[in-house]
Design brief:
mainly alpha; 13 helices
């Protein structure tokens, strides 16, 4: 802490405990990487059909995976890209450890799609607005979506591993707490930040910087607010929370948290976000159990492909 902040009255001290500071830093990264994802999407539309470049410019690789790996190196976070030797030995417990988080969200997706017609009288794909060519076959649809879903899954998987590692090492969360927090942050990134950043691309240029600043400030305030709640619960103290200088931060943080909750308020859209949250949680759990980034990458890739294929089969049946 600097001498200047030491000289300030307690009510005017802007210094943050480590937990709010780390969540604020992680929130800043998530907003920035949502912008790189949107920028990569814009670039991929212009490089579509160009060999190699259309693959490298995909939002999942250029917009998400690569910036995440760069940030991990900058923040000195170890994301093991190697395949653990223990996972290559064919043992029943090894196979179960690796595969259970991979297929759990897919089974949940199938269960929801089976239950949706019984409750709403129509398919889950129709409720969430999935559309496919009426004459396309399952094989053609699968081949069409394999590349984009696996590229996107690579980005989501690497992001999940980084968020888990950041929360576990910098905030000393338990493995279970880091998994739950990674699921929440992954859901907010996928359903909130990514969608908002993609929308910003379509806005007039004079509006983009201001809207991005609002998105950044609100999200960082939300991260700091959650960090303060966690810090207060652990320390059993509100000594820092009552400082008047943090009132605007908490106000914006509450707005950001309400925006997160509204993702689940709409039916059936909330079911879709909940399924993605389960997928992010299973991916983080798989990373925690195996220590390999490839488990969350495979988990998110297969889940993304399953969402497309289940929706196609539903629309074909209904």
């Amino acid at each position: 802490m600097s001498p200047f902040t030491d000289a300030l009255p307690d009510e005017l001290d802007f210094s943050l405990p480590s937990e709010p500071a780390e969540l604020g830093r992680l929130s800043t990264f998530l907003v920035c990487v949502s912008l790189t994802t949107a920028g990569a999407y814009w670039l991929s539309l212009r490089l579509r059909g160009v060999p190699v470049f259309d693959l490298l410019s995909s939002p999942g690789i250029a917009g998400l995976a690569l910036p995440t790996l760069v940030y991990a190196r900058y923040a000195d976070l170890d994301l093991p890209l190697r395949v653990d030797a223990s996972l290559t030995r064919v043992r029943l417990e090894t196979v179960g450890t690796a595969l259970s988080p991979v297929f759990a969200p897919i089974l949940a997706l199938v269960a929801v799609t089976v239950a949706t017609p019984l409750v709403f009288g129509t398919s889950f794909a129709a409720l969430v607005g999935s559309t496919f060519h009426p004459k396309a076959s399952v094989l053609a649809t699968a081949s069409w979506w394999v590349e984009p879903t696996f590229l996107a899954g690579a980005g989501y998987g690497v992001l999940t591993a980084l968020v888990f590692e950041h929360l576990r090492t910098r905030m000393s969360l338990s493995s279970r707490g880091a998994v739950l927090s990674a699921a929440a942050l992954g859901t907010y990134f996928h359903g909130g930040l990514r969608s908002a950043a993609l929308t910003l691309v379509s806005f007039p240029k004079q509006w983009r910087l201001g809207l991005f600043a609002i998105l950044l400030v609100a999200t960082v305030a939300g991260g700091i607010t959650v960090g303060f709640v966690y810090w207060s619960a652990v320390e059993r103290s509100i000594r820092v929370v009552y400082r008047p200088v943090f009132v605007p931060v908490f106000a914006l943080g509450v707005v950001s948290l309400v925006a997160f909750v509204t993702l689940f308020a709409e039916i059936p859209g909330g079911f879709e976000h909940a399924l993605w949250g389960l997928a992010f949680g299973c991916a983080a759990h798989g990373y925690a159990r195996t220590g390999s980034v490839w488990v969350p990458v495979v988990t998110m890739s297969l889940f993304g492909l399953a969402v497309r294929l289940v929706g196609f089969v539903e629309l074909a049946v209904f």
